[in-house]
Design brief:
This protein has helices at about 10-15, 30-35, 50-60, 90-95, 100, 130-135, 155-165, 185-195, and strands at about 35, 40-45, 60-65, 65-70, 70-75, 80-85, 145, 150, 170-175, 180-185. It is an alpha+beta fold.
């Protein structure tokens, strides 16, 4: 996979499009920003943490020539219906020794904020890798989050922003005709928002 510095093959075409009138936030829709479902990594609740970790570490998303690694994997049912999301942090928490993740549910930001403990030597022992492999057999369903929020494909950018901020979400599934067709991420939302608020001229930039 090429680096982010590689030229965008569609850049010329995009430049031609951008020569038209600037769209407003009401004209930019969730469908314009979303990553299609088939371009995003997915697992099932019955897949192992090892499988999910491999899927996330090897997957790259190419959106208009900008390549990024996903922070989430979609959790699909046997009928390919989106039922949840699993984060990289969820996977790491599932793999971590129990003494490191005690009380994490209430304070996730303190996941690795631990005092020196004799038990830490366990991580460096010859058995550490064996224990890690054993934990990696746990199922995605044990650590993933259920879907509680979606937006519609025709929802405008401003509503997507509002829902992300209101519910503190970095990714939101996009529905069309009752079916999830993709996901919208903060990286695309912020990029488009930055374009909207970009000064029209250098005189508007201030000091």
């Amino acid at each position: 996979m090429g680096s982010e510095d590689l030229p965008d093959p569609g850049a010329a075409g995009s430049e031609e499009k951008n020569k038209g009138p600037k769209r407003s936030g009401a004209e930019i829709l969730a469908r314009d920003l979303m990553v299609p479902l088939d371009k995003y990594p997915s697992v099932t609740k019955e897949d192992t943490l090892a499988f999910a970790a491999k899927a996330l570490s090897e997957w790259h998303i190419d959106m208009a020539g900008s390549i990024s690694m996903p922070r989430f994997a979609l959790v699909l049912s046997d009928d390919a219906e989106l039922v949840g999301i699993v984060r990289r942090r969820d996977i790491l928490r599932g793999l971590a020794p129990s003494f490191l993740v005690a009380d994490i549910s209430d304070h996730p930001e303190k996941m690795f904020d631990v005092e020196v403990d004799p038990n830490l030597a366990e991580m460096l022992s010859d058995r550490a890798e064996e224990k890690l492999r054993k934990k990696a057999k746990a199922l995605v369903g044990e650590v993933c989050d259920e879907i509680t929020l979606t937006v519609q494909a025709d929802d405008p950018l401003i509503r997507v922003v509002r829902e992300m901020v209101r519910h503190d979400r970095a990714i939101i599934p996009v529905q069309e005709n009752g079916v999830v067709v993709g996901v919208v991420r903060t990286v695309e939302v912020l990029g488009m928002t930055a374009e909207l608020i970009k000064p029209e001229s250098t005189n508007d930039q201030g000091v």
